[in-house]
Amino acid sequence: MSVKIRLQRHGKKGKPFYWVVAADARSKRDGKYLEKIGTYNPNTNPATIDLNLDSAVKWLHNGAQPTETAKAILSYKGALLKHHLDGGIRKGALTQEQADAKLATWLEAKTGTVDAKKDGLTKAQADAKAKAFKAEQDVNAKRLAAAAKAEADAIAAAAPAVEEIVEIVEAETSTEETPAAEENNEETQA
């Protein structure tokens, strides 16, 4: 019986979620499996991978062949490196302490690069949000300036009309006051 380390699809349409499993090569893609080794969620950025490193290495030692995607996942999490280092220990080229030290330094470097990517993504997202906010403020300022200009133009257009009305009212009041003054003069003379 040949064993494959492969992905088993779960999740809904358009939102895949995978289990990393060790299964018989003859079984269906989502069928029976021998052991669930981990999970893989490609919907997040960076992709979330939870892998039982010891179980994956155990299956690799027993001759399980990973598919291309599963091989990339195992390599990303360090399972293939640990399998390689364990081969060096069996041959006597390395001691267990040396292999553990090499694996630990590689994992620290990998964690550093993943954290740097996460920080870069959050910084890029914050920059995009700040840029959008600045653009929105500029648009609002232009809109307010246009509204103020339109209001000032309306007041300026209404000002000559108001002055004409004031002149007409003053002219009417002055003509009405003139006859009244003449009547007062006639009464005083009598």
Please summarize what this structure is.
The chain is α+β, with helices and mostly antiparallel strands and 190 residues long.
Description:
The chain has 190 residues and is an alpha+beta fold. The protein is built from four helices and five strands, in the order ββββαβααα. Strands 4-3-2-1-5 form a five-stranded mixed β-sheet. The protein is rod-shaped, with a radius of gyration of 42 Å.
Please report the distance between the alpha carbons of the first and last residues. 141 Å
Number of helices: 4
SS strand fraction: 15-25%
The overall average pLDDT, rounded, is 85
Strand and helix map with partners:
Layout: E1 3-12, E2 15-24, E3 35-41, E4 48-51, H1 53-61, E5 65-66, H2 68-77, H3 79-91, H4 96-189
Parallel strand pairs: 1-5
Antiparallel strand pairs: 1-2, 2-3, 3-4
Summary tags:
190 residues, alpha+beta, 4 helices, 5 strands, rod-shaped
